[in-house]
Amino acid sequence: MKKKIVKIMLLTLVAFINTKNVFAEVIKENYVYYNDKTDNGNYRIHKNIDGNTSDLILIRISGGSSNDITGFCIDVGADLPSDSYISKSSKTLEEYLNTTLNDTEKSKKLATEINEIIYFGYESNPTHNYYAATQKMIWEKLYNAGYRTSYYSNNVTFYYGSTNVNFETETNAINKAIADYKRTPSYCSSTTNLELAVGETATYKDNNGVLSNYKVNCSDGLKCEANGNDLKITVLKESGTQKITFSKEEKGSGTVVYKEGNNQGVIESTGKIASVSCEFGVDTYKNAQTSGIKIVTIISVGIIFGLLAYLIYYKNQMLTNK
Fold first, then answer.
1. How far apart are CA 13 and CA 4, in angstroms?
2. Is 221 helix (H, G, I), strand (E, B) or coil?
3. Which domains does the chain have, with CATH numbers?
4. Pick from 98, 123, 240, 302: CA 20 to 30 A from residue 143's CA?
């Protein structure tokens, strides 16, 4: 009997521990201040969506075994009371969005864009201004994708005091960082393959100035040497069309969805950017100059042998006539 009780207690303890591994965090809220100027209430940022004005809240997911995590709202119109409990969702952001959008491709694209905004936004620049800009961009992406449009507006505005702020500087910086990351070496935009002969070496400059950010991989018939934004290519052997591939790996862990009951969904301020790659072709051929030398050599040797044969024939004729 005692063994049975101990076994039940152990099972209960294991169940309790397993439950704690999926513990519910606590939502904490802070005000967001323009330029981080928390010394004056007039700098508190307010948001206006469809004529409804309220404070912009910096969401903190607090408690458990980790430090506080900054979060972003993805369900405008749903409640998110301070001190309410929230748990990690078993769904990825893409899956969570798809429950409403019911469009796998659109949900995947939207989740990718949100991850990029977070990565180059608040995660890389943890200031209140970048928090507001990141949140605004996330809302606009959700609205433009048709996600919960009855609760969103295509024109979210922010104020501190009576001053309207659109965080254009931060928004432009985020968009530029995303575009710069995706920019590939200028060779990749060419629709025509390079043409190089065996043994020939050529150096090409990347006009986009991003070659140094990429790993360069060449086919076996080529030798590639990258130096800054210059790419030196040498053809080692003729083997038709060769490929040069430029790539860089993904970065970031990716955001996580938190959700509890009918409360608002929240995502972590941990973004992710996908890998980028491109390639272009090099058509290789025999070195014409070397081939020409071989032909001339063969012809020259033939002439010499012909002359020798004629001389021998001529000599034999002279001897016969004597």
1. 14
2. coil
3. 26-181 (no CATH), 184-254+275-288 (2.60.40.10)
4. 123
